[in-house]
Amino acid sequence: MAESDLRLAIEKFAKDLAAKAESFVEDISTLEVRTFTTPSAEIATLAGGELDLADPTLARQLQLRAYTKIDFDCDTTICLPVDNNDQVDRSVWDMHQTMVMQALKTRESMLKSMGTALTSALDALQRVAG
Amino acid sequence: MTVSRFTLTGLSVLEGAAALPADDLLGIWELNASQTTAFAAVAEDAAATSSPAGAVEPGLIWRVELPASRGEAKSELEARLAAARVRQAYLEAAEKRLSDLQMGLVYSAQTADAESALLAEVMALRGSAVAYGAGDAGAISLLHLYEQCEALVARFRRLVQHYARVETSVGGQPVALTIVDWSGDHSVTWQDGIGPLDMALHMDSVRLVLATRQAWLRLISVVASGALSLSVKASVPGGQFLLFPAVYRFVRDVLAELEQVQVNQEAPG
């Protein structure tokens, strides 16, 4: 009884993981980073919800300040934040660049994690087959 | 606020979660669904007035609450990041010990308690499908372990379904939140006028969350592949499922053992 429950739980987990791995491979062709700012009085109200910009209430609270999209072949699209004088807003731009670097590192570590998990699985399967 | 809190909400509400300890098994995060925080207090008020009860499935939210002293906050985050790295190394050690396990060898109880306990369970499973009688302490312990494993796997499913939402507050004031999705895309919202110190604190919070997720996924990978290869070594039919709880306990024991070694090394005298 306990064994079959556990077996079922593991099978569900493996299925979810496989689905995520599949979508990861599909989605990995681009990396997007969005930087928003919000007034200090508003930020706490964002807790727990989705950042869905189609939501007009949320769209009023958030201001998209910078955007970067990097394609797999390294084609890059960047939207720069400017102030009222059309000068690049350095503080926002620095924050955004730091986040882009973080996102690139995250993707690298996700790829490594996927690779390690795959290697472990193949290793274990080889032991089974051998 | 003078103390730090690192909480993960959304896992402890799962069925069967009571079978698991209230920490994250790596000792970094506190699992608690009912924290009142700078972010959460406002969210709960909003949910109470705008959403029907049970309408929204709670997601996984990683909350980092830091003291007003930026120096203390930085030290606390650095300590947790170091702890996450150490646990990753412990997991590698546990995987190596699992891989080195030999069925015919006798392990010294003093030097390899975890190996001895695991081999004893493997031998019991190999010798008989039902090693324990109903009501035996061993059977109850095994049943409890199965329940823990089932709850653990359910937790990991949830971890797979949701990626990471990180909320950082400093001195009781929310400063930033970041959502990372499965493809690595980041959406970050900063409080207007945030300073470089608070920004760095939030970045470290995001790093801590991602390092923890990586360690957890490594944990499940070590246990699953360990159970599979051990079932072959031990010739236990269907052993990858039967051995899952035993291997999970082995990994947990090795983590605790290595942790104790480190504590002993750091103890004065």
Order of helices and strands of chain A: HEHHEEH
Strand order of the largest sheet of chain B: 2-1-3-4-5-6
Percentage of residues assigned to helices of chain B: 55-70%
Helix content estimate of chain A: 55-70%
Structural class of chain A comes to alpha+beta
Could you describe the largest sheet of chain A, including whether it forms a barrel?
A: 3 strands, antiparallel
Largest interface: A-B, 56 and 68 residues
Radius of gyration of chain B, whole Å: 21 Å
What is the beta-strand fraction of chain B?
5-15%
Which spans of chain A have pLDDT < 50 for at least 5 consecutive residues?
Answer: none
Query: From the structure provided, what is the oligomeric state, counting identical versus distinct chains?
Result: heterodimer
Number of alpha- plus pi-helical segments of chain A: 4
**Strand order of the main beta sheet of chain A, please?**
1-2-3
| Count of distinct strands of chain A | 3
User: How confident is the prediction overall: mean pLDDT of chain B?
Assistant: 77
Question: What class would the helix/strand composition of chain B place it in?
Answer: alpha/beta
Low-confidence stretches of chain B: 41-57
The radius of gyration of chain A is 21 Å
3D shape of chain B: elongated
Please tell me the total number of domains of chain B.
1
Strands of chain B, count: 6
